[in-house]
Structures are given as structure tokens and as C-alpha cells.
């Protein structure tokens, strides 16, 4: 396992930011670590990257304990925090060479060139970081997080401030990195999770409320919303007789939005209902499940 978290608790004064949190992340896995503001995401990431100690429990990165083997952990981890700390008076290339020197990287200049190309900083490499847009500063942060070729990347809101084109580039970069490295990222952009994450961990009030593969989470946790159009007018009372249908909202006399929380696909029951009542189904559309719906359902309390 690249990341092992066992019964981690973090207490600030009287506030319990993390409460007995446990999860594992395997090699070459891209995991979305989600939760509302104040849920404990950044706290967990800071513990894994040795920025702050846990109050209780054990956390390991590449089998190194974050509490007792922090230097080994830092060698194997790349971290992009939410508020990207950079030396604004340094030039991009100069800064990356400086970071490479800290890690004592062999062929540091060659590695800096690779990172500049990988993150699309060629045009900006000779500018001061303070003169860059927020999106390009984020790219510099990504480059410094990856410059020592870590086995694990932890990113807190990695696409903050990027325009749509930059967003697509960085998502593609993270997706490709996940083929060779373990990536754990937090984000509030649910489309990003659906696009690049293999697995989702949702935390709320300091506790894990979901830990599943992305597709599985979408299929198992959200309501089915189906829009169906019949060839004849039909009543709500009759529609509620369909197995597992919990509510029916009229869009017209013949068109209805049906909602079910069943894990089984209810479209078969709708067709059987139509045949039984001498109705023809003109159109039927099952709304695609969204991670956003799951997130709202699990964190609404």
C-alpha cells in the first residue's frame, strides 16, 4: 500500500478535526478525497505530508511512519497545498533549480527542463513567479511537487484558478501521472472527480462516510431519476403503483419524472407497467448519476 491510515484522530483544543479515520490507498491509484469545508480534508493531508502530527493513530506513506520516519516520507511524497507557497521574487527556472538542489537531485538542470515541459511552463520559465497568473503559479507548484519524482502525490485543490484550457491540460497530466504514481487529491469540482478519479473517499465532520470506486458510488448511492412519456394521459396515483417508484412529478399529461432509490434498474418495471395498462412508451430517459448528488446526500447533515 502507498498510503495506510489507521485510526487517525486529530484534536485542536476542544475541537476534534479527525475522528478515528482509517483508509488505504494502493499503488497507481487516483483517489478523490472529498468533503465540505471544515470536514478535515486539509488536516488529513497535512498529517500525511508531515506538516502536523496526529493526536492518535498511525499513518504510513510507502511503509514509512509519518511520526517517526518523516524524512523518508518526504523523500517519497510530493505535496501541492491549497495555498500554494512560492518565492515570488524568484524566476520560475531559478526556483525549480533551487528546489531540485534541496532534494539533491542528480542532473538537476535536466530534471527542471523536464518539469517545465511537463507542466507547460516553457513560455513563462524566465519570468518572476510574482508576475505569473494564478493558473501558471499553480503549474509551478505542480512542477516543484513532482521534481524529485515521488511515488506519491498529494494535491489540495490542484486546479484552483485555471482557465478551461489549462484545466483540461492539468487533468490530463494528473490522469497520466496516475499510471505511474499514487495520486490523492481534494477538490470541490465534482466533474473533475468523475473525469480522473478511480476511487472516492468522502469525509464529513471528521469521519469517513463513503469509500468506494467512483462508478460503484454513483450506482449505489444516488436516486434514479427517469423521465418517461406515454402515448396517453395517466394519473400520479396509477404511476405510484409501479414497483420501487417513490414519487412522480408531472411535466405534462403524458410526461412524468419518476424517482426511485432502488439499487435495481426500475426501467423494466416501467415497461411492464405500460404493457399491463395498454400504454406505449414514446420516450424514456434515465438521468446520469452524478457524484455531486452523492456528495450532497452524504454530507447534508
CATH top level label of the largest domain: Alpha Beta
Query: Helicity, in percent?
Result: 25-40%
Q: What string gives the helices and strands in order?
A: EEEHEEHEHHHEHEHEEHEHEEHEH
Q: In terms of per-residue confidence, which ranges show pLDDT below 50 for 5 or more consecutive residues?
A: none
Looking at this structure, what is the CATH superfamily of the largest domain? Answer: P-loop containing nucleotide triphosphate hydrolases
Radius of gyration, CA atoms, in whole angstroms: 24 Å
Task: Assess the beta-strand content as a share of residues.
Answer: 25-35%
Shape: elongated
At CATH level 3, the topology of the largest domain is: Rossmann fold
Number of domains: 2
Chain-averaged pLDDT: 91
CATH architecture classification of the largest domain:
3-Layer(aba) Sandwich
Distance between the termini: 32 Å
Largest β sheet strand count, sense and barrel closure: 6 strands, mixed
By DSSP (H or I, 4+ residues per run), the number of helices equals: 11
Quantity of strands, as a count: 14
Amino acid at each position: 500500500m502507498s498510503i495506510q491510515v489507521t485510526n487517525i484522530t486529530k484534536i485542536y483544543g476542544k475541537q476534534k478535526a479527525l475522528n478515528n479515520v482509517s483508509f488505504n490507498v494502493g499503488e497507481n491509484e487516483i483517489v478523490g478525497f472529498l468533503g465540505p469545508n471544515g470536514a478535515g480534508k486539509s488536516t488529513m493531508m497535512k498529517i500525511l505530508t508531515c506538516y502536523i502530527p496526529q493526536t492518535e493513530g498511525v499513518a504510513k506513506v510507502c511503509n514509512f511512519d509519518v511520526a517517526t520516519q518523516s524524512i523518508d516520507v518526504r523523500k517519497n511524497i510530493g505535496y501541492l497545498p491549497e495555498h500554494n507557497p512560492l518565492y515570488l521574487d524568484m524566476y520560475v527556472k531559478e526556483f525549480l533549480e533551487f528546489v531540485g538542489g534541496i532534494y539533491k537531485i542528480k542532473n538537476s538542470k535536466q530534471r527542471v527542463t523536464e518539469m517545465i515541459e511537463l507542466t507547460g511552463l516553457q513560455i513563462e520559465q524566465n519570468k518572476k513567479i510574482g508576475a505569473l497568473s494564478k493558473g501558471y503559479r499553480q503549474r509551478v507548484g505542480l512542477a516543484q511537487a513532482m521534481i524529485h519524482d515521488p511515488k506519491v502525490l498529494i494535491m489540495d485543490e490542484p486546479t484552483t484558478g485555471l482557465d478551461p484550457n489549462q484545466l483540461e491540460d492539468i487533468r490530463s497530466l494528473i490522469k497520466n501521472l496516475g499510471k505511474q504514481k499514487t495520486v490523492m487529491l481534494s477538490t470541490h469540482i465534482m466533474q473533475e472527480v468523475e473525469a480522473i478519479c478511480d476511487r472516492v473517499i468522502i469525509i464529513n465532520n471528521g469521519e469517513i462516510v463513503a469509500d468506494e470506486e467512483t462508478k460503484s458510488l454513483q450506482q449505489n448511492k444516488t436516486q434514479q431519476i427517469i423521465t418517461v412519456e406515454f402515448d396517453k394521459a395517466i394519473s400520479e396515483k396509477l404511476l405510484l403503483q409501479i414497483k420501487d417508484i417513490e414519487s412522480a412529478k408531472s411535466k405534462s399529461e403524458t410526461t412524468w419524472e419518476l424517482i426511485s432509490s432502488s439499487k435495481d434498474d426500475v426501467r423494466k418495471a416501467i415497461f411492464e407497467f405500460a404493457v399491463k395498462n395498454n400504454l406505449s412508451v414514446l420516450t424514456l430517459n434515465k438521468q446520469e448519476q452524478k457524484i455531486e448528488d452523492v456528495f450532497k446526500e452524504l454530507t447534508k447533515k
